Amino acid sequence: MSYRTVHAPASVLLLAALATSAALAAPGAGDEAQARQIRQGEYLARAADCAACHSAPKGKPFAGGLPLASPIGAIYSSNITPDPDTGIGRYSLEDFDRAVRHGIGKDGSTLYPAMPYPSYAKVSPDDVQALYAYFMHGVQPVSQPNRKPDIRWPLSMRWPLAAWRKLFAPTPVAAVKDAAAADHDPIRRGRYLVEGLGHCGACHTPRGFALQEKALGGDNRAFLSGAVVDGFLAKNLRSDAGDGLGRWSEADIVALLRSGRNDHSAAFGGMADVVQHSTQHMTDADLAAIAAYLKSLAPVRAGTQAPVYDGTAHEALRTGTDRSNGALTYLNNCAACHRSSGKGYAQTFPALALSSTVHSADPTSLIHIVLRGGAMPATVSAPTRFTMPAFDERLSDQDVADVLTFVRASWGNHAPAVSASQVAKVRKAADAAPGPGH
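The chain above was modelled as a monomer; its predicted structure follows.
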C-alpha cells in the first residue's frame, strides 16, 4: 500500500487549527445543554420543595432521615443524593420516573404515599428528566443509610400499599397532555404547578377513609378546601369569601408566596417552610400563574357573603366596657401587636379582623399559634423575621378558649366559639407546656 502526502492550503490548515483550539477551550453543545438541564432541575426541585422532606434538621441536603408522622407510625424520608450505595446513584431515568410519578421503588415495592406521587403523576416527562439530571449531577452524594419506618407488623406489610396505589393514585399518562401547553396559558401553567409539581393538595385537601386525598384536581370542590396537617389547619385556598382567598387579589397571593406576608396574613407552620425553601425562589411568572389558577377555583360554599368590618369591639376595648375574660385576656396579651381595632400592623403583625384564618371553622391553627407561638419566614424580599411568643405557660385552656372566642366574634368576624376541651386536645398534640394551675 502506498501513501500519498496531500498538501492543503495554509488558510485551510489555519481554520482547522482554530476550530480544534476552540473545541478544546470551550464546552461542547452537549455539555451546555446538560448544564441548562441541571439548572432547570434545580429550579424544579425548589418548586417541588424536595428539600422540605428529604433534608433532616442539621442533616446534609437531600440525605433523608426526616421523620414524617402518619397514623400508623413514623415514616423516614429517603436519601435521594446520588450516592450509589445508600442513595439513588444506581437509579436509571426509568427507575427515577417510576419512583416519582408511579410511586414504585427500584425494588418494585410501592412507596408510602407520604411521597406525594399521586400529585407528581401530573409532572411532565421532560421535567422528570431535568430533575433526574439535577439529582444525579447537581447534588453532592452523601453516604447515609435509609432508616426503616417505625411501623409495627402487620401494618408494616407492603402489599396493601400496592392496592392503595391502584385505587387512589392516577396513572401518569393522563397528565402529560395538559402540561404540554401549560407555558402558554397562565391558568394552565398554574394548574400544572399547583396540582402537580407543588403538590399543594397533599396538605390543603381533606383526606378520606383510607387517608387518600378526597380530590386531586380543582374541578372537585373538595380540592384545596383545607385540612389539618401537623397540628395546623392548612387553609382553604379556594375562592370562599370568609375562610378562603375570596378577598385576596392575585397580587396578595403572589406577595405571600414571595415574602411570607401580605396585608391579610402571614405564613406560619409548615407554610412558612414552603415559602422559605420553595416559593420565594420561583419566577414571577410562575407565582403569577399559581395565583391566577387559585383565583379561578370556585368556592366550596357558593353565595357566602364577605364579612364586613364592625368597630363595636374596638370601642368596647378602648373604653373598657367589655370586662369579659376573653376581652381582658386579649388586652393583656394580644392588643399591643394586633391592636384593639384587630387590624394589626400591615406586613408586620397580621390583622385578626376579617382574617380568613380566624374565619376557618376549625380553630386548630389559632389554638396552636397561641400555645406554641410562631414565626414568619425570613425571605430575600422581606428579611425581617417577626415572631409571636408562646402563651402555653401563661394562659390556661379556658383563657385560650375565651380569648379566641372573643377574636372569632369581634370586628366583623363570625366564626364558632372555641371550647377549653378543644384547647386541651391541641395542647397535648402540640406537646405544649401545661397552663397555670396544672
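The radius of gyration is 26 Å.
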